[in-house]
Amino acid sequence: MSGHSKWATIKRKKAKTDVARAKAWNKLIKEISVAAKLGGGDIEANPRLRAAVLKAKGQSLPVKNIESAIKKGIGGNDGKTVEEPVYEGYGPAGTAFMVMAMTDNKTRSVADIRNAFSKNGGNLGEPGSVAWGFQHQGVIIVSSEQISEDELMDLVLEAGADDLSTQEDVYEITTSPESFSDVTKALEAKGLEMMSAELTYNPENTVKVGSEEGEKIQRLVDRLEDLEDVQEVYHNAEFEDE
For residue 155, is pLDDT > 90? Predict the structure, then answer.
């Protein structure tokens, strides 16, 4: 598979401070609750909830927190209407950004996101301005110590995966959003532990940036991720250490 390592991006997300990790966990809990509210609390019958739980486990969210979030989601209507807008924009060095939000106040969200872009060398774009350069995919990471590449390739392709590649000491499995659940179930049935499993937006092409530009881009990412209404931030920057 061509393109930069998705594992490098995932590792960067995992290497958070305790404060940043707590914020990330809160966003995961929010997603789990909404997924359960919309599709029910059965992980096997609710693909969105399954994806949210797998992602939460990959970021070490405690099981008790996951269970609590599911119970909260199926517990009833809290009276708030939650929307999930997607915002697109440009960062330093001409990089493209996609920002996934979950909010009960779009006016507040767009104002906060626009402000984050403008104060960190970027600007908010129009709908469709950069989305064409990203592909919605499932990305699953499995340690190469657990299974041979050939055996894993046969397993995941039969389950519906699109591709598999080796990066450092891990395998990166890519799937369509539709086959993500089937592939993760096949891995679990085989007794394989997933280091990470999530639905994401991967750039079709990346922009390589040096350390100075990379620092500016990371500041923008951090500022966006600090916003309460922002769930995920995707971009096409490829940092030097990747």
Answer: yes
Q: Specify the 3-state DSSP secondary structure of 201.
A: strand
Question: Which amino acid, one-letter code, is at 218?
Answer: Q
Quote the pLDDT of residue 240.
Answer: 76
What global pTM score does this model have? 0.86
Domains in the chain, ordered, with CATH?
6-74 (1.10.10.200), 86-132+204-238 (3.30.70.980), 133-203 (3.30.70.980)
CB atoms within 10 A of CB 220: 23
Q: What is the mean pLDDT of residues 25-45?
A: 94
Q: Is the pLDDT of residue 161 over 60?
A: yes
pLDDT of residue 81: 82
Element (H, E) at 12: helix 6-14
Q: Are 239 and 209 in contact (CB under 8 A)?
A: yes
Rounded Cα gap, residues 155 and 131, in angstroms: 31
| CA count, 13 A, side-chain hemisphere, 30 | 18
